[in-house]
Amino acid sequence: MSRRGRVTVGVLVGVFLLFTLLGWGIDAYTDYLWFDEVNFTGVFTGVLVTRLLLFLAIGLAMAVVIAANLYLAYRLRPLLRPHSAEQATLERYRMIIQPRLGTWITVISVVIGFFAGLSAQSRWKDWMLFQNSQPFGVKDPQFNVDVGFYVFDYPLWRYLLGVGFTTVVLSVLGALAVHYIFGGVRLQGVGDRMTAAARAHLTTLVAFFVLLKAVAYILDRRALLLEQHVSPGLYGAGYTDVNALLPAKEILAYISIVVAIAIIVFSNAVMRNLVWPGVSLALLAISAVAIGGIYPLAVQNFQVQPSLADKEAPYIARSIEATRAAFGLSDTEIRPYAASTTVPPATLASDTSAQNVRLIDPQLVSEAYTQQQQVRGFYDFGPKLDVDRYTLADKQAQDYVVGVREINDNALTTQQQNWLNRHTVFTHGYGMVAAPANEVVCGGLPYFVSGFLGDDQQPGCASASEEIKVDQPRVYFGEQSTEYAIVGQTDANKKTEFDRPQPNNNNAEERYTYEGTGGVPIGSFFRRLVFAIKNTESNFLLSDAVNNDSRLMYVRDPRSRVEKVAPFLTIDGDPYPAVVDGRIKWILDGYTTAATYPYAQRINLQEETTDELTNRGTVALARDNINYMRNSVKATVDAYDGTVTLYEFDDQDPVLKAWNQAFGGKLITPKAQTPAALAAHFRYPADMFKVQRNLLARFHVTAANEYFSGQDFWQVPNVPDDPDSGVKQPPFYLNVKLPGQDDTRFQLTSAVTPNNRDNLAALISGSYVDNKPRLEVLELPDQTAIQGPVQVHQRMTNNATVRSELTLLSNSNQSQVLFGNLISLPVGDGMLYVEPVYVKSGQQDAVPLLQKVLMSYGDGGTYVVLANNLKDGLDKLVAQGKSNQPATNNPPDTGTQPPPTDNGGQQPALTGQLATAATALDKAIADVKSAQQSGDFAKYGTALQALDTAMTNFQNAQKAAGVATPTTGPSVPPSTNPSVNPSAPAPTPSG
Fold it and tell me: N or C: which end of the chain has fewer CB within 10 A?
């Protein structure tokens, strides 16, 4: 290469390295500034230093070993080489390599060490846990070793063993290449094919490889407790492993040591050739196949398989016990629940739990929040809201559906999409909107009690004043905060941030300037330059919006902030907001996990937590395979200043203790220091519950022989209104008192069914008692006749009376009936099922409105009602129970059969009370149609209620007049001048 070519290559390499290092440097610096903002610089420096040390230690160690073996191979080269065509060919390579041998060895070693270091730095978690390991206080049932060895030590030892194998293999290949190039190993010519020095060098490396294999056999003995061996489909060492494989691996470890010694001795001291070392390696391979493969296979087939249940029973018991301990299932309380009452009892209507059933579905009602509480089109509440509970003045604790009014950057108009608006004007949301979970007004809308933008709430559709008071309603950190924001002004009178529309004047708006401590100060030119390069945006340097008091907010969504602060935690997919001491705080559940708990069942975290709500406001978890899980941390993120706080929740978790110690012992706030006002909003985490629920479906069976048969396993039912989709039904938060509980609790509940069957098997609940988690199971008798969620939904919707009313609601081509969460609730020694029914108009921007409540009791199909509200439904069920007259399931009549007439077949004109009722019905239908066209939800709701009353009055008038009445709702005879066909379905709002 010419000198100009070398200079060009050098310049290009230099520019590449400059920009690469500059990018890394800027990323590291801006990360440090972010950690400094949230006061967690110890995490940044701790992780960075650990990764650098591992990079240097492993990379340097491998580079030195490789370099040493390459140089040793060169030093052991023969001084005289026999003449041959092969050596003549190799001479040209020796002439290139030998003058710059040091450079060649250095480059090769550095490259290998660099990639080894890159691999090593990713193991910083294993190293930090190894350095700060804690005892579990539980020993494995086979070796009597503390579980802490498997969780904290084993992963690192296994990785270091892999590094050792890689180093030896690369050393063998490198040394063999050098020996061949410089004549120590020859393929042609007279004499030996390998010099004594080359043979000694290479056989020593092979001996080291075999010694490492002996160590691997020792670790493999422990690994048997982590792999899937126990039948049926359980993890840990089974009968064959304990009685055949464990001794086999021990024998193989001793054989490996003997073979390693034999390789060195026979190849260098006794026979001085490679015949016996080759024979030794062959014997090792044969022993591995015979002792480690054939013998265990024979034991499995001839001893275990003929009596599999008996042989595996002790090991199945080990797996059951370990799995229940690893996932917090050991203290699960299982109580029988007969569900023997199939007739609605008289006490049903007054039962507190029945009255507290949540009707509002957080997934369906989000659109109503957005339509009714946004005022501006760029406000959004996300695809799914959250459920929390509050105790307001003079009221008991009640669950509320809550959502934060945030700015959706994608909903900004084209004019608002410029850089200035996106990053300096539309910087924050405003307020947390809440509504009682079982109360609807104004034609099916939630009854809003907080988060108002002004005082112009429509009477009857919202509370007159804020019932959940927030001192600082502005939301700078939220789930939809995907853009960075620049806030703060030097001129106190210059307010540039859009705050909210002015009350009673939607055309005007209030402006605001951030006054908090959140964000990174970027007043200096250097920092502006850094962030301009990082974001490739020159406005950081040129725009007047960036001034000396400016602060830059980035990494603003709560999950990302907590994941960055605590990278060792797995964060629950559903953060939720709560008002704590007058401030909006995001609450997140953090899990510590491990994958090496002996005998525990291994699961895929994403598969176990995926259900109907995943990716609909709930984030899917990573596809991590784990066999240990604890909800160890409750994290909070302040919505105004972004402050992140990690509160200890499980004070007995050794993994959390190890991580806290790794970062100086002050990373986690002790559980005793958790504010009571915050703890009052802690709830059982959904993803943890899903994992435990799915495991309890099998591991509620604790007897080994029963587990082996698998006859009592459960499964999570599919979504009731779409079972063919294969999507699992999510659990539901309820504020109820279940049988056997002392008081009402805010708990997560889920129904389960027997494997491959649809009837109900049990109800699982998770709640907190004295701020400690408690899992409870109400188990129904085997072969119960009580229906499961899928069956209940089908039987309720197929009821003739219900079906006809749903047809009225659907309005055929214009409206869509949507079913909310079907809740299974044990009440009165029976089962109550409640499913809200929403109606969504086919018109654009329509919102689902809660119109009816579908309810049943007992077996799910005998006593069924479609009521206007929860109280009405309970009363109707009680009435059915008293009369012992279940809801009819006969096919409906096609219409009214008019009485015989004597005027040529014409129906007589309506008179008296019947005519008055028909006229009122006509007017009610006309009012509904008018409200539909106007799009006024309140007016539409009032009109629907009037229509329902008019229909009832008309039916009563028909009965009084002796006119036949159909079983499927009113089919009204024509009045004098009917304006609308009264048998048509009820219209729906235009949205």
Answer: N
Q: pTM for the complete prediction?
A: 0.85
SS (H, E, C) 748-783: EEEEEEECCCCECCEEEEEEEECCEEEEEEEECCCC
Between 202-211, 292-301, 644-653, 841-850, the lowest mean confidence (pLDDT) is in 841-850
- pLDDT above 90 for 944: no
Give the DSSP H or E segment for 645.
strand 644-648
Q: H/E element holding 982?
A: none
d(CA 234, CA 243): 17
CA–CA gap between residue 150 and residue 219 (Å, rounded): 11
Cis link prior to 773 (omega < 30° from 0)?
Answer: no
Average pLDDT, the chain: 86
Q: Which helix (H) or strand (E) holds 928?
A: helix 912-934
Cβ neighbors of 652 (< 8 A, separation 6 or more) are none
Q: What percent of the chain has pLDDT over 70?
A: 88
Q: What are the distances in angstroms from CA 453 to CA 467, 473, 474, 513, 956?
A: 14, 10, 11, 18, 45
Q: Is the per-residue pLDDT at 592 higher than 90?
A: yes
Q: Provide the token pair at 500.
A: 């909210």
Question: Sign of the CA dihedral 796, 798, 800, 806?
Answer: positive
Q: How many angstroms separate the Cα of 86 from the Cα of each of 99, 208, 794? A: 21, 31, 83
Residues 6 or more apart in contact with residue 380 via CB below 8 angstroms: 370, 374, 405, 406, 407, 408, 411, 480
Query: What confidence tens digit (pLDDT) does each residue in 71-114 have?
Result: 999 999 887 666 777 767 777 878 888 888 889 999 999 999 99
Q: To the nearest 5 percent, what fractions of the chain are helix, strand and coil?
A: 45, 20, 35
> What is the C-alpha separation between 276 and 269, in angstroms, rounded?
12
b (16+ CB within 10 A) / e for 916-938: ebbbbbbebbebbbebbeeebbb
Per-residue model confidence (pLDDT) at position 172: 94
Closest CA to 906 of 974, 978, 980, 982: 974
CA–CA distance, 440 with 618 (Å, rounded to integer): 25
* 125-161 tens-digit pLDDT: 999 999 999 999 999 999 999 999 999 999 999 999 9
Written as six digits, the tokens of 368 are: 């109503």
Beta bridge partners of 629: 593
Cα angle: 719, vertex 724, 730; to 5 degrees: 15
CA–CA separation, 664 and 258 (whole Å): 46
Confidence of residue 442 (pLDDT cuts 50, 70, 90): confident
> How much of the chain, in percent, has pLDDT values that exceed 90?
57
| Residue 576, beta-bridge partner list | 587
pLDDT above 90 for 317: yes
Contact 828, 894 (CB under 8 A): no
Contact 871, 885 (CB under 8 A): no
Q: Are strands 772-779 and 333-336 parallel, antiparallel or unpaired?
A: parallel
Residue 40 · residue 645 · CB < 8 Å = no
Q: Six-digit token pair at 389?
A: 């509970």
In terms of Cβ atoms closer than 10 Å to its own Cβ (0-12, 13-18, 19+), residue 548 is exposed
3-state secondary structure 419-473: HHHHHHHCCCEECEEEEECCCEECCCEECECECCCCCCCCECCECCCCCCCCCEC
- Which range (396-405, 854-863, 873-882) has the least confidence? 854-863
Task: Please tell me the predicted confidence (pLDDT) of residue 919.
Answer: 75
How wide is the angle at C-alpha 160 spanned by C-alphas 159 and 163, nearest 5°?
90
Q: Give the count of beta carbons closer than 10 Å to the beta carbon of residue 680.
A: 16
pLDDT surpasses 60 at 897: no
Locate the DSSP E strands across 58-189: none
What pLDDT score was predicted for residue 984?
Answer: 35
What the block records as the tokens of 378 is 């760029």
